[in-house]
Amino acid sequence: MRVAIYARVSTKTKGQDTENQLHQLRAFAEQHGTLYKVFTDEESGGKADRTEFEPLLLEVYQKKLDLVVF
Hints:
Layout: E1 2-8, H1 19-32, E2 34-41, H2 53-61, E3 67-69
Parallel strand pairs: 1-2, 1-3
């Protein structure tokens, strides 16, 4: 199974980063399939044109992924 991870935080100024998310999501992905790719954004979830979100959706559309965890 090809598993992708998507991690996102709004901004670094709120004291948040994606590392905690990635640690837990990588563990889950490795237990449930082969980790295929990691996508991360440090942008508002309200933006439709997030840097890594659009490429993630494209890979889903192209059926390159079996599962996305976030």
